[in-house]
Each structure stands twice: as structure tokens, then as C-alpha cells.
Write a structure and sequence with these properties.
heterodimer, A: Cytidine Deaminase, domain 2, seven-stranded mixed barrel, 8 strands, 22% helix, B: alpha+beta, Ubiquitin-like (UB roll), five-stranded mixed β-sheet, 31% strand, disordered C terminus
Chain lengths: 146, 108
């Protein structure tokens, strides 16, 4: 699958996650797509509600945020297609914790934020058997280097 | 029969249907019937016989964990909703290279 996400949205994600550094931040991805192409149309920042002392390496949303955003996406003719979060001072690859809390058919964009600078952004998807993530192609990847 | 609303990523396992009608007098029975109809859902909702920790079931606007859990009784016109708790986290830190710089940090 190829993920299409504009430079503006990538930059918006990066700026949000740099602002939450050294804690993790995140939000939802709204979009539309077919089996092998996904267009990210909008992002929605969602507060990290994990215990504050753990937010440097953990991120969580309220279930009510999912309900609200899924309804909003439906109303806009879009779908809740994924979510993004940061890995402060760690690589943009899924952790075991990410895998345990993931669903298939959902795009996971992870941004490494190194010393308060968004450094790398990569997209992943959980395999249907939950065994591992596969990396997805991101069209127009690389805006963070600009 | 009660209706169960399926979260977007799991609709691939219900032939694209957002809402499934299921029989059952309790939430647990309804979910058992749901995964019987759509077996590929099971691995993503349950870990053995327990609901996965990030899977929440809402009856109307109330989390069943604050009711009687899977034993919560439901009526034929009730609406259930499966809501994932999105969560993520850093991997344990170890010496690695990122962005051309090598980081060496303790496990968090």
C-alpha cells in the first residue's frame, strides 16, 4: 500500500510532535482509499492521557476520542484510517508495545523526534495475524529533511 | 437482536459491514455470536477468552468494564460499540543510530 500525505500535513504532524517533546504526542489520520492506495486528507491532534510520568515513552487516547473522531469521519464522508504518534529520541519503528495495542487495516505513522526535532517519519501496518508490522511506502516522504 | 458497531479497521473482517446484528442475552454472548459469524475478528478482540486490554465495549455511552463486564445483560434493541483504546510507545532504548547520530541511553 502507498500512503499519500501532503507535505503540509507531514509538517503539521512534525510541529505538533516537536511541541510535545520530550513526551509522546499523537492523533488520528482521516482519509480515504482503496486496497493499495491511501490518501490522508486530514489529521486531528488528540491529547495524550497516559499517566504524565510515563508520557516520555507512552501514548494513549480516551476511547471517547475514537468514538468522536469515527463519527466525525463518517459525517465528512471519510474514514478513520490510522493514527500517528512520536517516539522521542527513539527510531520511527514500532515497538512491542505498539504491536500489542495495534489493529490491522490501520495506518500507523511513527515519527522519531530527536532532541526536539522531528527526524524521520515512517508508516506501518500490522499483519492480519498480529505477528509483526510491515512498512508502507509513503509518497512524498522526506519533507522533514527540508 | 442487538446491534454491534464495528470499528473501521475491523470492517475488513465483516465484509465491510459497519453494524452487525447478533443474538445474545449478555454482552459476552453477543460477542461470542459475533466472532462465530466472523471468525477473523476473534484474534483482534480476544486474547484467549479475555477481551484484549485495548478493546473496549460500550453499551450506549457506558463502558461495560464499569458495569458487569461481559456478564452485562442486554436487550434486543440495545446498541453495542467496539472501541479500541489507541496506545503506543517507545521501544526500550539501546545503542542505535538515528539521523546519523548514535544515541546511547538507558531503558525507559
Amino acid at each position: 500500500m502507498i500512503i499519500h500525505i501532503s507535505h503540509d500535513l507531514q509538517r503539521a504532524i512534525a510541529e505538533q510532535l516537536e511541541a510535545t517533546y520530550p513526551n509522546e504526542g499523537g492523533g488520528f489520520l482521516l482519509g480515504k482509499g482503496e486496497a493499495d492506495q491511501m490518501q490522508i486528507v486530514d489529521i486531528v491532534q488528540v491529547d495524550n492521557v497516559f499517566a504524565e510520568a510515563e508520557q516520555h515513552h507512552r501514548y494513549a487516547m480516551r476511547p471517547q476520542d475514537w468514538m468522536r473522531l469515527e463519527d466525525m469521519a463518517d459525517a465528512r464522508g471519510l474514514s478513520l484510517v490510522g493514527y500517528y504518534h512520536s517516539h522521542p529520541d527513539s527510531p520511527s519503528v514500532p515497538s512491542e508495545y505498539d504491536r500489542e495495542h495495534a489493529l490491522p487495516n490501520f495506518v500507523y505513522i511513527i515519527t522519531a523526534v530527536l532532541m526536539a526535532r522531528a527526524n524521520d517519519m515512517r508508516a506501518w501496518q500490522l499483519r492480519p495475524d498480529r505477528s509483526a508490522f510491515d512498512e508502507l511506502d509513503m509518497a512524498a516522504r522526506g519533507v522533514l529533511a527540508e | 437482536m442487538a446491534k454491534i458497531r464495528i470499528p473501521t479497521p475491523l470492517r475488513a473482517f465483516t465484509d465491510g459491514e459497519a453494524s452487525i446484528e447478533v443474538a445474545g442475552g449478555t454482552v459476552g454472548e453477543a460477542l461470542s455470536n459475533l466472532v462465530e459469524q466472523h471468525p477473523d475478528l476473534r484474534a483482534h478482540l480476544f486474547n484467549d477468552s479475555e477481551l484484549r486490554s485495548f478493546v473496549n465495549i460500550f453499551l450506549d455511552d457506558e463502558d461495560i468494564r464499569f458495569m458487569q463486564g461481559l456478564d452485562t445483560e442486554i436487550a434486543g434493541d440495545d446498541s453495542l460499540r467496539i472501541i479500541p483504546s489507541i496506545a503506543g510507545g517507545n521501544p526500550p532504548r539501546s545503542p542505535h543510530s538515528i539521523g546519523g547520530k548514535t544515541l546511547v541511553s538507558e531503558e525507559t
